[in-house]
Amino acid sequence: MELFTPWGREEKIALAISGGMDSMVLYNLLNTVYRESYGSLILLHVNHGQRAASVDEAAYIMEMAQRDGRVCEMVVLDIPPGTFSQESAREARYHFFDEMMTRHGASMLLTAHHLDDQYETILHAVLTGRHLPGEMGIPAERHMPGYTIVRPMIDIGRAEIAGYARAHDVHYFEDETNSGTDYTRNYIRHRLMPPIRESAHLQAHQLLRVKQDMSDVDDILKARAAAFLAHHEKNIDRHAFNREKRIVRFYILKAWLAQHGDAPRRRHIDAIMDAIWSDISNASFEMDHTRIIISYDRIVKKQGQDEKMEMLQMGGDGIYRFNGYTITSRLDAECYPMTVRTRAEGDRMYIPGVGTKKLSRIFIDNKIPADERGTMPVVVDKNRQIIALGEIYNIMDSKEKNRRLIIEKEFTNEPEK
């Protein structure tokens, strides 16, 4: 049985050993045929604490390691009853693996995933809508911080592994939960894969072609998204975005959000895309690190949480900053004090030649994005009259050049902090 062996003869490697047939066969091979292919080998065993038989299995593995002169590290996962899940168990396992790989200075962590696991993983991805984005299936190598995960048996089928176990009298333990169909992966293994193998018209190995094709498609879509974003930094033109195919739009948003460490689930990105495609004028979506704002014909990404100012007093000439605006005031002394605030319910302002108008109507008429309406500076004089509204209207702007009230919106290409 030929293993995939990317390690060197002097390297320290580790084996994740469960006690099941696959990992016990891999250990047997590493302990015999491939004994001279590495420098040293440590064993890492995780007891999930969900089965009574796990205690005996752990004891056997420890005794086996001692007999063979191997270092063996073990952990019993502390997952409260009723909260166990495949995802929580995997997270706890790899937390343990990370610690042990660092402690022992091992460069590669070997797992016993094989060809049938690959088929099941690909089928699972297809049937649960996870075929894109990203690498499909189980990679032979995956780089982690500080070490590499290696699957030496990824091209070897379960039947060949079982044949080796019989021929070499490899002792292993059966996990009774693997025979059930409660978990999706088990259902695929026991209900879907057998008929595929039995059919004269179906070929399981074609799933590997699906994996390769999807990998190529993934690369193409990533490149297309990168090319689009090269022309759109902080803002995206909504019409240009909607002209792209839906799967391209998905990759664009995913890459755009990843720039600041956000990795939302596909359904969340789908919701954003649906809103962008719709006739909604304004919408906002909160991520972990980023806020996506749909505003008329643009899509804006804001990083971090903005600190909103509600009110500012201007007691004299000077330069003031308010919610992303710079207010330069050079007026006669009798004009002060003035107040800068955000809008209030029922606000109206007088517009020369037009009359009074509600601020809410002014915002709509000027297509002011919804997220900006609550932060735009409203300048009120000492008689409580609104004399300026952001960059839209400013009755003091008509004064002589050296005595004016100037309101300018700040702009930067740098991410907001």
UniProtKB/TrEMBL annotation:
Domain of life: Bacteria
Molecular function terms, GO-annotated: ATP binding; tRNA(Ile)-lysidine synthase activity
CC terms in the record's Gene Ontology section: cytoplasm
Subcellular location: Cytoplasm
Record protein name field: tRNA(Ile)-lysidine synthase
Record-annotated Lysidine-tRNA(Ile) synthetase C-terminal domain positions: 338-407
Example GO BP: tRNA modification
Phylogenetic placement of the source organism: Bacteria, Bacillati, Bacillota, Bacilli, Bacillales
Keyword annotations of the record: ATP-binding, Cytoplasm, Ligase, Nucleotide-binding, tRNA processing
Enzyme class: ligase
Family: Belongs to the tRNA(Ile)-lysidine synthase family.
UniProt main location, coarse: cytoplasm
Known role: Ligates lysine onto the cytidine present at position 34 of the AUA codon-specific tRNA(Ile) that contains the anticodon CAU, in an ATP-dependent manner. Cytidine is converted to lysidine, thus changing the amino acid specificity of the tRNA from methionine to isoleucine.
Catalytic reaction(s) noted: cytidine(34) in tRNA(Ile2) + L-lysine + ATP = lysidine(34) in tRNA(Ile2) + AMP + diphosphate + H(+)
Binding site for ATP: 18-23
Comment block on domains: The N-terminal region contains the highly conserved SGGXDS motif, predicted to be a P-loop motif involved in ATP binding.
Nucleus listed as a keyword: no
The protein's Enzyme Commission number: 6.3.4.19
InterPro entries found in the cross-reference section: Lysidine-tRNA-synth_C, Rossmann-like_a/b/a_fold, TilS/TtcA_N, tRNA_Ile_lys_synt, tRNA_Ile_lys_synt_N
